[in-house]
């Protein structure tokens, strides 16, 4: 299996070492450098319908990059589209949901499909838009976040509430609910008023057993700014 290593303390690279015949998939424009034994091609992640859905609804890239060691062993460097950390997650016994723009790369044994969220979650939370990434198979997946990354452990005795703009990836076995407030007993109107007056915004309440990867800076603000620049 390819070796994925995070290299650098600030705005790191993802360093990938491939043996002949091995391959990885990565987000469009992620490749920074690759050695001569490697080939880069474009392909549709998740098939035509999945790629089209992500492009039309979430504004993500239609094609993903595919890097393969076709003439012998070689290394490549990948980088996220924004300033921030990279985390390599083991996929197999645990599968993950990945927020919009947080996917960076995956080894060839890992599949990534677009999974339709609950309509309310998509409209109010904007975490991954109407679709979030869902891993399958076995291997490793690299995710990235805006700013520093930190991993939280959710347990039955320790459910966690997180601002949705800071969520990068989470164990797909976890339960999560959307709320406009951290308050437990407010009405819907009360939650809306509190959200507006406090600046609290939308939060996700995770429960069960599993891990959540979060970032220190709000990814929704970054996404909104990028999309605003693209639309101009």
TrEMBL record:
<dbReference type="InterPro" id="IPR002838">
    <property type="entry name" value="AIM24"/>
</dbReference>
<dbReference type="InterPro" id="IPR016031">
    <property type="entry name" value="Trp_RNA-bd_attenuator-like_dom"/>
</dbReference>
<dbReference type="InterPro" id="IPR036983">
    <property type="entry name" value="AIM24_sf"/>
</dbReference>
<protein>
    <submittedName>
        <fullName>TIGR00266 family protein</fullName>
    </submittedName>
</protein>
<dbReference type="Pfam" id="PF01987">
    <property type="entry name" value="AIM24"/>
</dbReference>
